[in-house]
Specification:
The protein is mainly α. The protein has two helices and no strands. The chain is 67% helix and 0% strand.
Length: 79
């Protein structure tokens, strides 16, 4: 029973993360393709990446895997 409940919660969290990943992709496309980033996008995307890593921790443990995240603060990624 506990294991089924945990799996159900992990599936729900996976769906939430999928929606958040869509928001992240939208922000990246706006910034790099159209060179028109939204004012709120950079801060929100930084927080969403951290939130996704935390949420995916339980699912990763279930599959005996790990979540890898690369964060970079300050500066620009463009040359």
């Amino acid at each position: 029973m506990i294991l089924r409940t945990t799996h159900a919660i992990n599936r729900m969290v996976g769906r939430i993360v999928a929606v958040l990943a869509g928001v992240i992709v939208c922000g990246v496309v706006m910034r790099w393709t159209f060179d028109a980033p939204k004012r709120w996008a950079f801060g929100l995307l930084r927080h969403l990446r951290g939130f996704c890593v935390i949420l995916l921790g339980g699912e990763a443990l279930r599959h005996q895997s790990h979540v890898r995240s690369t964060c970079r603060s300050g500066g620009s990624l463009r040359a």
